[in-house]
Design goal:
about 475 residues, mainly alpha, about 75% helix, about 0% strand, globular, disordered C terminus, binds protoporphyrin IX containing FE
């Protein structure tokens, strides 16, 4: 075991495999929660199947387990590859893997007993939060020392995003989890909500988003064999992201009595977010211009391309729902759940999967078992997710209308039933997509044909070249 843990790229592989497994497990819990919303009597008051316990298992397992784990797996492959070196320590990578996955595992094993902190995205118990911090800090050490020992001088923008994401998260995570107060892991009153949403928002904005963008900057130029449109623009996007994202967590609590200055900062900042988003998308899409079919024809490239399109939609919807007048209608409704799913699965999840399908062969030295299964997974996820978005947004507007007109909840609830049933049904497509993906990963590792050593050596180096060229 110890010998395997020192094998080059074994830690990246471990993250990718775990991410695929969590994808299936996390979405199954989503189904359990969705069925409860469809048929509230279904579990006959069995406490450990209760929505209040299943929902956090779902959310934490897909967010930290599937999406973040896969994104980190890709990062610890592409950072050394871009720097023409090896990860500083595979064993340290495995240590990070152990800490991270032990924390994720605590969701399905500990939450059903009601042992969780009831603050969204901070549900893990304190010892597991410590493990998450250990994982993040050791990943930072490992990547920083990898950079220190690099053979490639240029720090391609993907490296910036990977290391930036981890450093920002090392700052944001303890703040949001109030880790300096282990007894409560919370502060009294409104200040707690403000800190919590500074953190909750940055988990998607400063962890998932930069890690996903880092992958897009790596995969798109490689698949299309095109030089990056502009290296300079990529750095403008990087700094603009951190400058704006950190200001806007307050848009999650606009309906609470937060100070007016915070309301103003958060709404203005949310609109300004369009800027870094467009800079990144323009740079990526201009890189691939004229090569769209090549990109679409590559199973991994197709996932990443679709992920960038979801990013555009998410980031047009985001500023819209940050307007207080719009949010007064949409806030307490399924509209937000629709946004969450296209954001976390559509944008970050699709790009994580594209990154994984692109890098898995390079990490394990075997060709993909089946490119057709990757395309099948793409179709299943796309169908399920487009359906989710349509159904949840419609349900949200019905709820919002009732909210605005002062209708009582028990009159509105029965009309939502059909949407809850449709969501559960559409979820089956997403779950099937997760199962197909896990099968493909396992079969690749067991039966994938070996890649020629020349392909393994040449490919990562080309990527670094692609990134250096600006117009
Ligand atoms: C990897 C795929 C998925 C991701 C990344 C994901 C992500 C999320 C996130 C971030 C939330 C929190 C939303 C919020 O509080 O605004 C959530 C809630 C939820 N998700 Fe998912 N989800 C996925 C798949 C599914 C599937 C397949 C189902 C159903 C079969 C499902 C059902 C639910 C339910 C029922 C909730 C709670 C909604 C509520 O509180 O009203 N999700 N999901
Ligand atoms: C231009 C960028 C974006 C803006 C302005 C924005 C805005 C918002 C707003 C205002 C809400 C709260 C809605 C409400 O509660 O009424 C929200 C929720 C959410 N957003 Fe975004 N968003 C953006 C991008 C993203 C991205 C890129 C992701 C994921 C990677 C994301 C993930 C989420 C999630 C998971 C929630 C639900 C949080 C919860 O209540 O549990 N958003 N967003």
């Amino acid at each position: 075991m110890l010998k395997f843990a020192s094998k080059p790229q074994s830690a990246a592989l471990a993250f990718l495999v775990a991410g695929s497994a969590w994808f299936l497990i996390g979405t199954l819990y989503g189904l359990v929660a969705a069925l409860h919303l469809m048929a509230p009597e279904l579990y006959n008051n069995i406490s450990w199947l209760n929505f209040g316990r299943m929902r956090p298992i779902h959310v934490n397992t897909v967010l930290f387990g599937f999406v973040a784990t896969t994104l980190v797996g890709c990062a610890i492959y592409y950072v050394p590859a871009l720097l023409r070196t090896r990860l500083w320590s595979e064993r340290l990578g495995w240590f990070s893997w152990l800490c991270w996955n032990a924390a994720v595992l605590s969701g399905p094993t500990v939450f059903p007993f009601g042992l969780q902190q009831n603050r969204e995205y901070t549900e893990y118990l304190y010892p597991f939060k410590v493990l998450i911090m250990l994982a993040i800090l050791t990943l930072i050490v490992n990547l920083t020392l990898t950079i220190a020992g690099r053979k490639e001088k240029t720090l391609y923008v993907s490296v910036w995003y990977a290391v930036g994401a981890l450093i920002w998260t090392a700052g944001v995570y303890p703040i949001g989890n109030v880790m300096w107060r282990p007894q409560t892991q919370a502060l009294p009153g409104l200040v707690d909500s403000i800190l919590l949403w500074f953190y909750g928002h940055n988990m998607v904005g400063l962890l998932l988003t930069p890690l996903a963008i880092g992958i897009a900057y790596f995969v798109l130029p490689r698949v299309t064999r095109a030089p990056l449109y502009s290296h300079r623009l990529s750095l403008v996007g990087f700094w603009a992201l951190v400058a704006t994202y950190t200001q806007i967590g307050g848009h999650h609590i606009l309906q609470a009595p937060i100070p007016n200055w915070l309301r103003t900062v958060t709404v203005v900042g949310s609109i300004m977010m369009i800027l870094p988003v467009f800079v990144v998308l323009a740079n990526l899409w201009l890189t691939t211009r004229g090569r769209g079919m090549k990109l679409w024809g590559d199973p991994a490239g197709r996932f990443v391309l679709a992920g960038t399109m979801w990013y555009l939609l998410v980031c047009l919807q985001g500023p819209l729902q940050s307007l207080p007048s719009v949010q007064a209608v949409t806030h307490f409704t399924n509209w937000v759940i629709g946004h969450s799913h296209i954001a976390v699965l559509g944008f970050a999840g699709f790009i994580a999967l594209g990154g994984m399908w692109h890098m898995l062969p390079l990490v394990c030295g075997r060709k993909l078992y089946s490119a057709r299964l990757v395309n099948l997974q793409f179709g299943l996820l796309l169908f399920g997710l487009v359906g989710f978005f349509a159904v949840l947004t419609t349900a949200g507007l019905i709820q919002g209308h009732a909210w605005a007109t002062g209708e009582t909840v028990y009159v509105v609830l029965p009309s939502l039933n059909v949407y809850m049933a449709l969501r559960a049904m559409l979820g089956l497509f997403i779950i099937a997509g997760a199962a197909v993906g896990l099968y493909n990963v396992v079969m690749t590792l067991r039966h994938g044909e070996p890649l020629e050593p020349a392909a393994l050596e040449a490919e990562p180096l080309d990527a670094a070249r692609a990134g250096e060229v600006s117009p």
